[in-house]
Amino acid sequence: MATLELDLTDPLRTFELRARLTVGAETFALVGPSGAGKSTILRHVAGLKKPAHGRIALGKDVWLDTERRVNRAPDRRSVGLVFQEYALFPHLTVAANVAFGGASPARVSELLERLHIGHLAGEKPTRLSGGERQRVAVARALGRDPQVLLLDEPLSALDAHTRTAVREELADILATLAIPTLMVTHDFLDASTLADRIGVIRDGQLHQIGRPEELTARPADAFVASLTGGNLLHGMAEGTRVTLDDGTVIEVAEPATGRVGIAVYPWEVSVSSTSPGAGNVLAGTVGSITPDRGRTRVRVGPLVAEVAHVDGLERGARAFASFAPRSARVIQ
Amino acid sequence: MATLELDLTDPLRTFELRARLTVGAETFALVGPSGAGKSTILRHVAGLKKPAHGRIALGKDVWLDTERRVNRAPDRRSVGLVFQEYALFPHLTVAANVAFGGASPARVSELLERLHIGHLAGEKPTRLSGGERQRVAVARALGRDPQVLLLDEPLSALDAHTRTAVREELADILATLAIPTLMVTHDFLDASTLADRIGVIRDGQLHQIGRPEELTARPADAFVASLTGGNLLHGMAEGTRVTLDDGTVIEVAEPATGRVGIAVYPWEVSVSSTSPGAGNVLAGTVGSITPDRGRTRVRVGPLVAEVAHVDGLERGARAFASFAPRSARVIQ
Amino acid sequence: MRAGFTALLALCLGVVLAFLAIPIVALFTEVPLGDVPGLLRDPVVQDTLKVTLRTNAIANVLILAVGTPAAYFLATRHFKGRALVITLIELPLVLPPAVAGIGLLAAFGAGGLFGGALQDQGIILPFTEWAVVLAVIFVASPFYLRQAISAFESVDPTLHDAARTLGASPARTFLRVALPLAASGLVAGWVLAFARGIGEFGATIVFAGNVRGETGTLTLTIYEQLEANFDVALSIGILLVVLSAVILLSYKLLSWRRSSSTSPTPFARSSSAPA
Amino acid sequence: MRAGFTALLALCLGVVLAFLAIPIVALFTEVPLGDVPGLLRDPVVQDTLKVTLRTNAIANVLILAVGTPAAYFLATRHFKGRALVITLIELPLVLPPAVAGIGLLAAFGAGGLFGGALQDQGIILPFTEWAVVLAVIFVASPFYLRQAISAFESVDPTLHDAARTLGASPARTFLRVALPLAASGLVAGWVLAFARGIGEFGATIVFAGNVRGETGTLTLTIYEQLEANFDVALSIGILLVVLSAVILLSYKLLSWRRSSSTSPTPFARSSSAPA
Amino acid sequence: APTVYAAASLREAFPEIDSAPRFNFAGSNQLQTQIERGAPADLFASASSTEAQALFRANRCERPVTFATNTVVMLVPAANPAKLDSIYDLKRGPQRRLAVGTAGVPIGAYTRKLLARMRLTSILSKHIVSSEPNVTSITSKVALGSADAGFAYLTDARAAGNRVKVIRLPKWAQPPVRYQACVVKRSGVDTGGANAFLNKVRSSTGRRILAKWGFGLPPR
Ligand SMILES: Nc1ncnc2c1ncn2[C@@H]1O[C@H](COP(=O)(O)OP(=O)(O)OP(=O)(O)O)[C@@H](O)[C@H]1O
Ligand SMILES: Nc1ncnc2c1ncn2[C@@H]1O[C@H](COP(=O)(O)OP(=O)(O)OP(=O)(O)O)[C@@H](O)[C@H]1O
Ligand code: MOO
Ligand SMILES: [Mg+2]
Ligand SMILES: [Mg+2]
């Protein structure tokens, strides 16, 4: 399988997009806030937008090289693109949508079966549910037997409960495809379930690239910290001591100086009604208490904690949240 | 504070909506699949749709009584409605939107400050981010000092990472309001964070009403089980023994007979590479392995498990998922 | 081959533009432009201008005043026969103006359906200024109504609902929400209706005749003056072209400024036509 | 007071409907309907009908064939001066037909801008069928172009992108995606253009004259027969009304069937007008 | 002031006689129809006796009086692209484009009569003939060069100035072109105003102006 290489520069409205990536036979997720340039990168790869400078190649096959004035039209690049709202052709049946890219009838049936939508072949897309549409969009993109797959927020149009099922299914499909796949998402769980590597993009810049657990372990900035589910505190650091904005002093693992952010994950915070002797302690009022997936989410002052039990705690009561110094990750 | 009582019957396109509810000074969340009739109930309460039969009253104030031919116009019911896509007036500034319901300039400033959007007073809604729009919509609904607050999927238009922050903020606001609040959502975490009680609605019928932890503990049907995050297995029950469709026999806590569903929560499942001696055991291939909020999500055959560690497991390997009989909740 | 497709499209556009532009350009070559101001001061032209402005002003006020609520009703209320009503409203669009004139005569002329009753009241409509007004309303109002209905329909109904739950009465909702949001569509429709009214000939000549200072509008005068005062006719023609272009362009600029200041989707394709 | 608002709206609608319906109804009361078939067999009418159909068929084919690609180009390509081009295209809409006729004469008539060149080629346009065709194209094509541009614009551009990434060339994308999705808007525009062409009078009489069997269209004949043979004029009028109504209604029924079978949002307000 | 409905060919002369009335200039038969349909006219001035007499017979106007006469001429564009120097040129040569009044309008009737007397009726079938509803559109067709020739009144040729060239037709072939005016009968008619205007037309000043524009004058 060929490797997708891209190296792009494109001045957008408010910032310059710069992306340099190599994606092998793996799934690479682009994660970042709205307007970061995620979709734009997919459009560059598909040939729907021409960057100011750059090169895109699949193995030896050069799709774009602005220096050599190479720029293949979208229909001459072997890509499958799944659009955010799916962009199914409303005037064609499901089968005709999948066949649009040139798939033979046999191949169309095979794809529909594989995605469990064989019985919908004759329906128009407007009569389908969100999950069904998503499957049609994936089948249509695969119908061209693309050498590169692009997915723009493939799950964002789905209900919370449809989403879980479709996510697992998509994970299986991506695992068997083994072609370079670029995916855009806002959701860290989607990214970590589906992708081998994640690139965090903000203002057109790739800020951090790594496996999901690497991002969680060492969030490079406040955005990554909140994306991976962390609480964010602010304060002034002097070595391993940080004076938070509310005056509390805490210990952190890595020394730093000046204004810093501190990421603390909810599952590394304990909560009690009496002050624990050791660790970093923040006192505060108890906010919402929510059962969440076998644990309980409690907010104490600025911190959300996920704990096994919350015996004796009530909304509005005073409580203490504590965490170990090594759980306090410093963000410059 | 007056209590909102409603008792409605309304034949919709494919089913008849029947809802009977009493909501005190609390937040009640309506949760259910798309098309279940959730928004329709809010429209009934607001007076935007007239049910075929029924009565809606706020304390002694009767808003609707089809028998006595009472039907107050929406502008004569004291409701604040936050629409799913916010429905802000695009031609008015943020301040003018909030003032539309008749709030004085002082009250408008107060509301904007309270929702941290004071600096946006002069902006047009189209120039705001999703989270900012949501705040404007809430401020506008509160601007009328309503006696009933209705929220239609107030968080669904937000990014995954904006969502967490806005959810906590909204929880604080709802906690201080203390008026009957009806909220629609697709997301169980939203519902359990914001609501005191949850009503699960499907095909126009309220299938289960209870506090979040009650729903998790005893899901009344397959929908509630998957909503609260459970895995769903199917099989034939004979007493406390259930033969699953793949032939595996498991033990459950409550006796039953005939075809049943079994809900198993991921956090009550363990995974190992060798068969554990005790409990219910399902063998299968390892699917995706995903770090998720301090734990690891692993799929083994039909089950997703959330475990602390997955030492020695790899995608595609054979593994065993096990759970205690009391974790196997029977669903008729 | 693929460059060929775009070239083909561009070629078609070129043909269209050339064909539509040439007659307009040619118009300007026919008349000594320096004489136009003088010719327009001709008392015949002055009379004509007055009649045209007066009758069209009345007609447009009536179209806007009665047509706007009617369009709002049709856009927001659903009742049986609505499709038929809309077809009826659109019928004058596809009716040859002369036939419209005959119809108006048949309805309001002496011996017409209502002509007798009106005459008994001392009201004579045909061949008076009011006949011009009626003719203009009949041929021009469907342009406005059609666009107004679709402008009101494209106002998100949840905004309407939002206004109601915020305590606004139906009338206030109409004034504060529907009207401002439909405004640009309404103006687009009005521009068309106005233009159609100014250019109206067929129904007017049949129903109102060409009485100088009474029913003789600019368009009628053009036909009348074609023979003798060809230059006067041309000057009026040029006046009308310039007037039309100014109206169209200023409307475009207006709606362009509006949309560029409030557009929710900065990358939405800029809408070309007052659709 | 609040019931009053709806009543006011309904009243306005009633006034509009009454006013637009009365002339059409009156038209039918004027002529002994039984005689209409006989009158329409009159050789003058037969000639006229043939001329009308022939010239309009040619004009409409040209409008569709050249206008559709031109509209697609304008709807999907962005270039400087695009707004100006669109204004130019809309200008004939607001141009009095007589002025349009003068413009056409000034451009293509003997002694006109291109008249000499054409004459050298042995081509004389005025008083020929081709003059009618040109006049019809000039006045009717903007109706089609305008609607076609907005129909193509309202096709979701991501569908276009989707087709391209699925390997479709620009031409195939146009044929398989843009054209079918814009179809109902195109037909709506074409209905308007067709109707405008059939009813065309001013530009035709000035530019093409009224030559029986050559340039004498139905509308010209109505004017001609208005004094001489009023019943013939009326019969043609009725023929045109019925024709117009049939075209409008069949278009409505067509688009209604389409939309009711594929409508994505069952509760979307039913769109009234071919907007 | 009265409302005067007058034949299109009177468009220059009448306002010069008195600019006070409201004028409606069109084909005489068109005006006749309008008056029959209730148009609020006070005086009707027709380019032939047919229309005025028809109204008189229908008791819609007083007895018509003849106030002017006219002459039918052939007009060609100033540039004369078809090189027509006489009406007989139309018997020969290629097909030409002619603007001729419809049979229903006075000028059309006169033209046909004249051609019949000259035994030239065949030219109406030999050439391409545009039927025009009134003299205005005949002269404009010639003036704009879309017709190679047209038949109209001498008076129109004067009004059209240097854009057209007049080709006189033999006197012996001329039909009697009699302009007749009558005061309309209807409720609310301004009889006084109508008669006053008619008298002005028939006064010596009126006759002088008519003559100036090329009309012939009936004996007093
Ligand atoms: N054709 C263009 N020219 C210039 N700027 C553009 C263009 N298209 C998009 N932009 C800008 O580029 C930025 C990135 O847009 P993009 O659609 O790639 O964001 P995104 O990361 O996909 O956001 P979202 O999560 O909302 O989909 C935006 O700020 C947008 O304003
Ligand atoms: N005015 C109406 N008349 C008849 N049926 C209706 C009407 N409005 C909605 N329905 C139907 O009622 C059902 C419930 O619609 P509703 O909008 O309340 O669903 P919902 O639960 O809010 O769904 P979602 O989560 O997608 O917003 C739908 O199946 C819809 O088809
Ligand atoms: O009535 Mo006329 O003057 O022959 O057109
Ligand atoms: Mg995007
Ligand atoms: Mg809903």
TrEMBL record, chains A, B:
Q: What is this protein called?
A: ABC transporter ATP-binding protein
Give the domain of life: Bacteria
Q: Which organism is it from?
A: Solirubrobacter phytolaccae
KW Nucleotide-binding (keyword) present: yes
PROSITE patterns in alphabetical order: ABC_TRANSPORTER_1, ABC_TRANSPORTER_2
Sample GO molecular function, one term: ATP binding
Assigned keywords, A-Z: ATP-binding, Nucleotide-binding, Transport
Task: Identify the InterPro entries for this entry.
Answer: AAA+_ATPase, ABC_SmlMolc_Importer, ABC_transporter-like_ATP-bd, ABC_transporter-like_CS, Mo/tungstate-bd_C_term_dom, P-loop_NTPase
Enumerate the spans annotated as ABC transporter domain: 1-228
Task: Kindly give the Pfam families that the UniProt entry links to this protein.
Answer: ABC_tran (PF00005)
UniProtKB/TrEMBL annotation, chains C, D:
**Which family is it part of?**
Belongs to the binding-protein-dependent transport system permease family. CysTW subfamily.
Name this polypeptide is given: Molybdenum transport system permease
Cellular location of this protein?
Cell membrane; Membrane
Q: Which organism is it from?
A: Solirubrobacter phytolaccae
Instruction: Tell me which residues make up the ABC transmembrane type-1 domain.
Output: 49-251
Concerning Pfam families, the annotation shows: BPD_transp_1
For the keyword Transmembrane, the answer is yes
InterPro entries in the cross-refs: MetI-like (IPR000515), MetI-like_sf (IPR035906), ModB_ABC (IPR011867), NifC_ABC_porter (IPR006469), Sulph_transpt2 (IPR005667)
Membrane-topology descriptor: Multi-pass membrane protein
What's in the keyword line of the UniProt record? Cell membrane, Membrane, Molybdenum, Sulfate transport, Transmembrane, Transmembrane helix, Transport
* Entry function: Part of the binding-protein-dependent transport system for molybdenum; probably responsible for the translocation of the substrate across the membrane.
Q: Where would you find the membrane-spanning parts of this chain?
A: 57-75, 87-111, 123-145, 174-195, 232-251
Could you name the domain of life of the organism this protein comes from? Bacteria
